Here is the input.
Amino acid sequence: MADYHNYSPDTNQQPMYNPPQYQPQPGMAPPPGYPQKSRVAAGILAILLGHFGIHSFYLGNTSRGLMQLLISLLTCGVGWIIMSIWGILDGIKLLDGRINIDANGVFLKD
Here is the structure.
């Protein structure tokens, strides 16, 4: 059995916790030096090039953009029609303000 009565903690050891780090929260102001994305530019990209997922890449959603691009290119035109409709709907949502944050949770500028 261990003897816990004579235990003395090492007082020279640094505390075992992580200092607070910057954690993105949905709908926050941009941190210093962060390039804030434009809502209007993202909306126009979505309407014009949404079938390629360009607006998703612009907003930082790279996996979503890659999925949209591959579906458009690899389905022999069928996916292009679906991705075009998806892009137009995303463009409308961006322009009327229903989508107002980028992939890091930072507000889009007008």
